[in-house]
Amino acid sequence: MSVIAWSGTAQLAAVTLLAQPLAVVFLSSLLLSLRFLPMSLALAGLLPHAPRSRRVVAAICMVDTTFALLAAGRVGTVAAMVGTWLAQYPAWVAGTAVGVLAAPLLPARLLEASDGLIAVIFAVLAVEAAAAGRREAAVAVAAGAGVAAAMLVLPGSIALPVAAVLAGALGTVVRR
User: How far apart are CA 171 and CA 167, in angstroms?
Assistant: First the structure.
């Protein structure tokens, strides 16, 4: 799945839902991947001098980390975004292969603890974005509050994707 699906959160959701009907797995992966829509829309403001065709290439190569790097101003060109993708993609696929091979060798308690890793990853990305300035910090705090509220109100499998899409939309609006 890592070879064709460039979304770790969608992959983790799919793995936890494998006992569900295929339509549920697909819909959950689709909802989780919708967070890339507002990120892609933000590319016009983040890469204002890049032609639309190049922004499409940037959107194809974008993951949460490349978007965070772009939003923080640490990456500023389409070529740099493609470069980060060229470094991340082989590492992602190889890391998945190692994880699949090593998982049976690890204690069950360690595997259970790894479920919280996604939350930690998003927290680190939020802190990184918040370090960029006051507006970015406000978006990170609002996104965190939105995720917490969504987790309390919505079923667990839909709370994170809904909150991610709303946070991405909020980031796009605040950026302007």
Answer: 6
**pLDDT per residue rounded down to tens, the chain (176 residues):** 788 777 777 777 777 777 778 887 788 778 777 778 888 888 888 998 999 999 999 998 888 888 888 888 888 899 999 999 899 889 989 988 998 898 888 888 777 766 666 666 666 666 666 666 777 777 777 777 777 777 777 776 666 666 666 666 666 666 55
pTM: 0.59
Closest to 133 in 3D by CA, of 88, 78, 81, 174: 174
Domain spans in the chain, listed from the N-terminal domain onward: 8-175
